[in-house]
């Protein structure tokens, strides 16, 4: 994508809306990025009651951990991978996740206590 702004995000939401069968609720788990909380985005979502927004807490380090995992998956498997079919891709991802859980995954200990952060 050329820009990560409200218009680009709303374009994605339009595509999602067109793809998911009518009558099916759509739950979005999002951080508080500017494109997610822009007035234009909030208005678009408010006009579509099947969209249910769940914002992650500010300073949500767990979301960063998820992003790091997807970065690892991309670097180690997807970027240079060649897959003969969608089924093979899914199988290779499943194998990667199992191996990652077995050898690389480490427990994450939450340390943020919820108190306001100091500003510089």
How are the SSEs placed, and which strands pair?
Elements: H1 6-19, E1 26-30, H2 34-37, H3 39-46, E2 51-55, H4 61-78, H5 86-103
Parallel strand pairs: 1-2
- Using only C-alpha atoms, the radius of gyration works out to 18 Å
Counting DSSP E segments of at least 2 residues, the number of strands comes to 2
**Distance, first to last CA:** 33 Å
Q: How many DSSP helices?
A: 5
Shape: globular
- Briefly note the structural class of the backbone: mainly alpha
Question: Can you list the strand order of the major beta sheet?
Answer: 1-2
* Helical fraction: 40-55%
Task: Extract low-pLDDT stretches.
Answer: none
Count of spatially separate domains:
2
Domain Tc1-like transposase DDE: 5-89
Pfam family, one: DDE_3
InterPro entries: RNaseH-like_sf, RNaseH_sf, Tc1-like_DDE_dom
Protein name: Transposase
What does this structure look like?
The chain has 120 residues and is mainly alpha-helical. The protein is built from 5 helices and 2 strands. The protein has 2 domains: 6-55, no CATH class; 61-103, no CATH class. Helix content is 52%, strand content 8%. Strands 1-2 form a two-stranded parallel sheet. The longest helix is centred in the middle third of the chain and has 18 residues, at 61-78. The protein is globular, with a radius of gyration of 18 Å. The mean pLDDT is 88. Residues 5-89 form the Tc1-like transposase DDE domain. InterPro entries: RNaseH-like_sf, RNaseH_sf, Tc1-like_DDE_dom. This is Transposase.
